[in-house]
Design a protein that fits this description.
InterPro entries: ADH-like_C (IPR013149), ADH-like_N (IPR013154), ADH_Zn_CS (IPR002328), GroES-like_sf (IPR011032), NAD(P)-bd_dom_sf (IPR036291)
Enzyme class: oxidoreductase
Oligomer: single chain
Distance between the termini: 13 Å
Order of helices and strands: EEEHEEHEEEEHHEHEHEHEHHHEHEHEHE
Radius of gyration: 20 Å
Cofactor: Zn(2+)
EC number: 1.1.1.-
Strand content: 15-25%
Helix content: 25-40%
CATH architecture of the largest domain: Alpha-Beta Complex
GO molecular function, one term: oxidoreductase activity
Number of helices: 13
Length: 392
C-alpha cells in the first residue's frame, strides 16, 4: 500500500510499505477513505524529529471502511467508521473514568506517557498512522465510531480529533451563555473551539496573525483580532476591563512571537538524536508566547484551557502571576470517546451548527502529501485544513 512516511525534519514522502495485518482478535483493518493533516503533525515535521525514525507512517485523523474484522472486534466488513486518534481499551481503571487518553492498557510506560496514539512518534508508541491506504486499528471493540452512509466524509472525519479536542478545550474552559471566551490560534482546533464557544452561547474573541483564518472564524460569529502587542488591551476594553472569563490556547509549542523558543527548536534540529532527545525531555524548549498571553489576558479567577500541544519539561511559567490572579489551568490530550455522544448529533444536523462544511480548504490525493505539508506549515494558498484521499 501507499503511505505518508516521515523522513527527517521538514521531509515526508509517499512510499510503498507492507499492508497491515490483523494481530489481535479485536483488531480491524480499514480502507482509509479520508485522512487529514493535523497541526500536531507539523510538530513531527518541525520539532519532534528526535523521537521519530525514517519510515514511520504518520497521521492520526482517519476514517474509512472495515475490510477485515477480528472475531471480537464488534465490527463487520463494510462498516463505515471514524477512528479516534487515541487508542484506548475502554475497560481499564482510567477508561472507566472516561479518561481514555490515559488508558492503562495502552499507556506508553517506557516513555512515562499516556495512551498510545496513531502515527505519533516513540513518545506515543510508534504506532503506524492513518495517512495511508489501509490502517490496522487495535481495540476496535471500543475505539472506532460507526457512522451512517448518507453524509460525505468531511462531516464525520473531524470526530477523529479536531472536534473532540476543541469540545474538550471549551468544556474545560467552563463557558456558557453570557460568558466571554478568547481563543488564541485559529487553525483547525481554534476554529472549532471558537465556533463551539459561540454555539454554547458565549461571546468569543479569536486571535490569529493570518488573515484567512480570521476571515473564516468571522463567518461563524467570532470577533476576530490580529495577534499584536495591543490585542490583549483591546479585549480587556471589550470585557469591562477585566479580561475574558476563559481563554483557550489552541496554538501550542510553535507560537509566533517566541524568538528564544524558536532558536532553541532550530538548534535542537541540528543535533544528533541521541543528544537532542534528552534535551527535549528535560529542557524548556516551548515557544510560549500564546500561553503567556493567555495567562496575561484571562480575568482574575478565570480559566486557561490548553488544547495546543507543548513538549518542554522545564518551560518557564509566570507562577507569581498565575497564583495572584487565582487562575485555573486545565489541559490534556482529548478523551475522544467521552465527547462523541455530544458531537455526533451536531455533525449530522442538517443545519451544520458548527460549520463543519466550512473547514476544509484543500482536498488532495495522498501522493500530494509532501507539498501539502509544506503548504500547511508555511500557511500559503489560504491553507487551513488539508484532507488527503488515499484512494484517489
Amino acid at each position: 500500500m501507499k503511505a505518508v512516511t516521515w523522513q527527517g525534519k521538514r521531509s515526508v514522502s509517499v512510499d510503498t510499505v507492507p499492508d497491515p495485518v490483523l494481530e489481535q482478535d479485536n483488531d480491524v483493518i480499514i480502507e482509509v477513505t479520508s485522512t487529514a493533516i493535523c497541526g500536531s503533525d507539523l510538530h513531527l515535521y518541525e520539532v519532534l524529529g528526535p523521537f521519530m525514525d525514517p519510515g514511520d507512517i504518520i497521521g492520526h485523523e482517519p476514517m474509512g471502511r472495515v475490510v477485515e474484522a477480528g472475531p471480537t472486534s464488534g465490527l463487520s466488513v463494510g462498516d463505515r467508521v471514524v477512528v479516534p486518534f487515541t487508542i484506548a481499551c475502554g475497560s481499564c481503571w482510567m477508561c472507566d473514568r472516561r479518561l481514555y487518553s490515559q488508558c492503562e492498557t495502552t499507556q506508553v510506560t517506557e516513555q512515562g506517557n499516556g495512551a498510545r496514539l496513531f502515527g505519533y512518534s516513540r513518545l506515543y508508541g510508534s504506532v503506524p498512522g492513518g495517512q495511508a491506504q489501509y490502517l490496522r486499528v487495535p481495540h476496535a471493540n471500543f475505539g472506532p465510531v460507526k457512522v451512517g452512509e448518507e453524509l460525505p466524509d468531511h462531516r464525520y472525519l473531524f470526530l477523529s480529533d479536531v472536534l473532540p479536542t476543541a469540545w474538550q478545550g471549551v468544556r474545560y474552559a467552563g463557558v456558557g451563555p453570557g460568558d466571554t471566551l478568547a481563543v488564541f490560534g485559529l487553525g483547525p482546533i481554534g476554529q472549532m473551539a471558537a465556533r463551539i464557544g459561540v454555539h454554547l452561547g458565549a461571546r468569543v474573541f479569536g486571535i490569529d496573525p493570518v488573515a484567512e483564518r480570521r476571515d473564516m472564524a468571522a463567518r461563524h460569529g467570532v470577533e476576530v483580532l490580529d495577534f499584536t502587542a495591543e490585542t490583549n488591551a483591546e479585549i480587556r476594553d471589550a470585557t469591562g476591563g477585566r479580561g475574558p472569563d476563559a481563554v483557550v490556547d489552541a496554538v501550542g509549542m510553535e507560537a509566533h512571537g517566541s524568538p528564544v523558543g524558536k532558536a532553541a527548536h532550530t538548534a535542537v534540529g541540528f543535533l544528533p538524536d541521541a543528544l537532542a532527545r534528552p534535551l527535549m525531555e528535560h529542557a524548556g524548549l516551548d515557544r510560549l508566547a500564546a500561553l503567556h498571553s493567555s495567562i496575561d489576558l484571562v480575568r482574575r479567577g478565570g480559566t486557561v484551557s490548553l488544547s495546543g500541544v507543548y513538549g518542554g519539561e522545564a518551560s518557564p511559567m509566570p507562577l507569581l502571576t498565575m497564583f495572584d490572579k487565582q487562575i485555573q489551568l486545565r489541559m490534556g490530550q482529548a478523551n475522544v470517546r467521552a465527547w462523541i455522544d455530544d458531537l455526533l448529533p451536531l455533525v449530522e444536523d442538517p443545519a451544520d451548527p458548527l460549520g463543519v462544511d466550512d473547514l476544509v480548504t484543500h482536498r488532495l490525493p495522498l501522493d500530494d502529501a509532501p507539498g501539502a505539508y509544506e503548504m500547511f506549515q508555511d500557511k500559503t494558498d489560504g491553507c487551513i485544513k488539508v484532507v488527503l484521499d488515499p484512494q484517489a
